[in-house]
Design goal:
Blueprint: E1 3-7, E2 10-15, E3 19-26, E4 29-36, H1 39-50, H2 55-66, H3 72-80, H4 87-101, H5 111-115, H6 125-143, H7 145-162, H8 164-183, H9 189-204
Antiparallel strand pairs: 1-2, 2-3, 3-4
Helix pairs in contact: 4-9, 6-7, 6-8, 7-8
InterPro entries: DUF1385
Protein name: DUF1385 domain-containing protein
Keywords: Membrane, Transmembrane, Transmembrane helix
């Protein structure tokens, strides 16, 4: 199964146990890279995501420590980053979703059609994050933060499997609304080109330079 991950400066597409494709837009062109699935590859993903977090995420994390606030707030801050994405990340996230939604061949030749694809993704992590916050906010006043967070995590794992109709009819519409208005933004052509070339690189198993299309 192909999975995607966007960050401030680019996009990853990967198959666990197989390979990782990365693309970023730099100096007026898309730069691509393909890595085998390995600890080094996973570390590359983690470093790109972690070290491109905006300053306000680091400031909020520091504030939690300085004020000696409950440490479960760090988990909520990490999940809540979805609702604080900088615009460039929201655009890459939107491009990632459009690639997943498009039913034809994901290729630069079909860029215009991909641009018209749905920006909502059924498998987006916004689904899990919105559910986590919903359960946490409902339970925290009664059982405390840590218990509420644990229950929310358990629900994230069990509800899609054991309560699929409820997840489909109630929870997913909330996520879809958030995806359209909060966690994604309409991508520009550079974001779409980046997403397409990352996806193509994963499919063929090698980095595809943009100039192959010139």
């Amino acid at each position: 199964m192909i999975q995607g991950l966007s960050y401030r400066h680019g996009i990853f597409f990967f198959r666990i146990g197989e390979g990782i494709a990365h693309a970023t837009y730099r100096d007026g062109a898309v730069k691509t890279r393909f890595l085998p699935w390995s600890w080094a590859g996973v570390g590359f993903i983690a470093s790109r995501v972690l070290f491109t977090l905006p300053w306000y995420m680091w400031a909020l994390a520091a504030l939690i420590f300085l004020l000696r606030l409950p440490l479960y707030l760090l988990f909520l801050l990490g999940a809540g980053y979805h609702f604080l994405f900088p615009r460039s990340l929201r655009q890459y996230h939107g491009a990632e979703h459009k690639v997943f939604s498009y039913r034809g061949a994901v290729d630069l030749y079909n860029l215009r059609e991909i641009a018209d694809a749905d920006i909502v993704n059924r498998g987006c992590s916004t689904n899990s994050v919105s559910q986590l916050f919903l359960v946490f906010l409902l339970l925290a006043p009664f059982v405390g933060g840590w218990w509420a967070l644990g229950a929310a995590g358990l629900c994230m794992a069990l509800v899609p499997r054991l309560a699929r109709p409820f997840e489909t009819r109630v929870l997913f519409p909330i996520s879809a609304w958030l995806q359209r208005r909060v966690t994604t933004a309409a991508p520009s052509e550079e974001h779409l080109r980046t997403a397409i070339l990352a996806y193509r690189s994963l499919i063929v198993g090698r980095a595809i330079p943009e100039d192959e299309y010139v």
